[in-house]
Amino acid sequence: MKYSKQRAEILKTVTENRIHPTADTVYTLMREKMPDISLGTVYRNLNLLAENGDIRKIPVPNGSDRFDSRMNPHEHMICTECGEVFDIDMDIMSNVKPLADREHNFDVSSCSLTVYGICAKCAEKNKNY
Amino acid sequence: MKYSKQRAEILKTVTENRIHPTADTVYTLMREKMPDISLGTVYRNLNLLAENGDIRKIPVPNGSDRFDSRMNPHEHMICTECGEVFDIDMDIMSNVKPLADREHNFDVSSCSLTVYGICAKCAEKNKNY
DNA sequence: CTCAAAATAATAATGATTACTATTATTAGT
DNA sequence: ACTAATAATAGTAATCATTATTATTTTGAG
User: Fold this and answer.
1) Fold of B72-129
2) What are the boundaries of each domain within chain A?
3) What's the pTM?
4) Which of B15, B34, B106, B126 gets the most CB atoms within 10 Å of its CB?
């Protein structure tokens, strides 16, 4: 894997913007620094960085994938009102692995949990109606 | 909501084929009985039936949604080798809800867990190499 | 410096799903 | 049963996120 300015800058963008950006958001942020960068490059590098263990790719059911620079075991909650993504510290892997093994002889390699609901801020806002 | 032959038959197809079919699989199965049915009708009715609580829609990260007629709380494991979907009896909701509430004041409405790994059958097959 | 390998920008293609539209089926009220 | 309002349909086009293609440019080892 060769060094490229683009990849380094993309990693920096994800690390500095802890907003769980989508590929498209990263693309928008990147164009401020490198106006000629292409969307394909952003996608390719986000995937490469994720494979390489530098960032995490968060698959979002019925939505764009998101990218996260926090690498500790945690899952994600998405507010269905404002769309913001929150981290929730939990390790489902250690929860699921023994269950899957015991009940189905299933050798778990990864799992993905997405939680939907209303965040505190939006719940507060809704009170005023 | 009016009665339609198509919707009734689609529900029957999902209920009888406990293979967690995708919309496209349902479409293929349906065309054997109703050759002129359209893919749009299949999608619309699967979504209607899911909203109505007759079936469950299982969002699959980076893949087609799947539909399930088993309505008890359970999650899904997908074999990355053969693609088969397995049910795993667990109620993450009751697991996640208190945690999300306590840590973030987040009001959870739903959550979706997908587990990836190798199923027993495929693991057995791989041994022979 | 040179040159092969890798990465890029730009664009086209893909796959899943939804939207649109003219036509047909269903059903409530006569 | 008849009819009008309305919901559902088939067929098609459009959308969205993502990946593939390709000709050109960058990178880094020798």
Assistant:
1) Dna Ligase; domain 1 (3.30.1490)
2) 1-69, 72-129
3) 0.92
4) B106
Instruction: Kindly report the CATH class assigned to B1-69.
Output: mainly alpha
pLDDT (tens digit, 9 = 90+) per residue, B35-51?
999 999 999 999 999 99
Query: Sign of torsion, CA B107 A19 A80 B40?
Result: negative
- Residue A58 corresponds to which tokens in the numbers above? 């968060």
Neighbours of A38 (CB within 10 A): 13
- A6 band by pLDDT with thresholds 50, 70 and 90: very high
B52 in Cβ contact with B36 (< 8 Å): no
pLDDT in tens, A101-112: 999 999 999 999
Closest amino acid to nucleotide C18 (CA–C1') = B40
Which residue numbers of B have CB closer than 8 Å to A's CBs?
59-62, 65, 77, 79-80, 86, 88-90, 92, 95-96, 99-100, 103-120, 123
| Per-residue tokens: A88 | 């929730």
Which of B61, B95, B96 has its CB closest to that of A59? B61
